[in-house]
Specification:
The chain has 158 residues and is mainly alpha-helical. The protein has two domains: 30 residues; 117 residues, Protein Binding, DinI Protein, Chain A (2-Layer Sandwich), CATH 3.30.910. The protein is 70% helix and 5% strand. The chain is built from six helices and two strands. The chain has a two-stranded parallel sheet. Helix 2 packs parallel to helix 6, helix 3 runs antiparallel to helix 5 and helix 5 packs across helix 6. It is elongated, with a radius of gyration of 24 Å. The termini are far apart.
Length: 158
């Protein structure tokens, strides 16, 4: 019986700590100057497939991948499985080297930084205190969805 009371007390304390943490997070989201905490959200999955800098880099990666795939398919046509596996590893290494030679890794990092900067810019323009991923919320007022604004701003990036 004492164990059950102990677990209840532990559960109550754990719940209190979680609630306190939630209130602290929400409190930090509030703008100290206006006492308003407007939280926006973004569909990061959609942005990652429609943000122009990502599309540009991904297109280059896809072209190089397709070239290697075509070469592999042609060369491995009559090979046994073991030889195909060895050839696959060779082409995978060649593809990684080609991506490195074209600085596509660096370009992807630059695209990610561009996305981060664009989200910050749009959030500031809309007066948002915080932006979260739409995947972690159950409901969000569409007025606070900045997905389209970020994609549109990304389309203007050269």
């Amino acid at each position: 019986m004492k164990q059950i009371k102990g677990w209840r007390l532990f559960t109550i304390i754990a719940l209190a700590v979680v609630l306190l943490g939630t209130f602290v997070f929400i409190g930090q989201a509030f703008d100290k100057d206006t006492n308003q905490g407007i939280i926006g959200y973004i569909d990061i999955m959609r942005v990652s497939s429609e943000f122009k800098p990502f599309i540009d880099v991904q297109t280059q990666i896809d072209v190089e991948t397709q070239k290697m795939q075509d070469k592999f398919d042609t060369e491995s046509k009559n090979m046994k499985d073991e030889a195909k596996q060895e050839l696959f590893v060779k082409y995978q290494n060649d593809l990684n080297k080609r991506i490195s030679d074209l600085n596509l890794d660096q370009k992807m990092q630059e695209a990610q930084q561009s996305l981060f900067n664009t989200i910050n810019k749009v959030a500031q323009e809309k007066g948002l205190s915080c932006v979260i991923d739409a995947g972690v919320i159950y409901y969000g007022n569409p007025a606070f969805d900045i997905t389209d604004a970020v994609i549109e701003a990304g389309a203007k990036i050269k």
